[in-house]
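Give me structure tokens for this 174-residue protein.
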Amino acid sequence: MLSTEMTSGLNNQIGLEGFASNYYLSVASWCDLHGFEGGAAFFFAQSDEERQHMLKVLHYVNEAGGEAIVPKLDAPQHEFSSLKQIFEDALAHEVRVTKAIHALTDLCLSEKDFTTFSFLQWFINEQHEEENLFRTILDKIHLAGDDERGLFFVDKELKSLAGTGITLESGTAE
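Here you go.
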């Protein structure tokens, strides 16, 4: 049975994952409207992935004797200045999610909740991959600078990454 504090923390995580899904959906729409076909495909896939993360936590809370609460989500930002800004903001959000998962993991250890600790290990690894992916894409965007041809090739690479489960780091399937 989950403690009240753990249930609350996991419900907060449901909200973070749900917001990420909506945020990436908003980003995908912006990319679609601004000619970044690859960026749109990439972020539509990211939105789906974040929704799956939300559902994974929701199901765990209910299965572990807690009560999952689906939160009201704030409308995400929908105006962006550049693809670079989008990836900087997305990376900052992923770092916040990582910190929240680390805080939950710390709570698990203090409560000796080893079942939830085990459950969260998947998220710890996933966040490491997510942060690395976004940093690697940002590196490519920085290399391209404001050159439209460079951004075209970054966008083309984003399209190839969309839904493939392949990371830029290792080139292997997840």
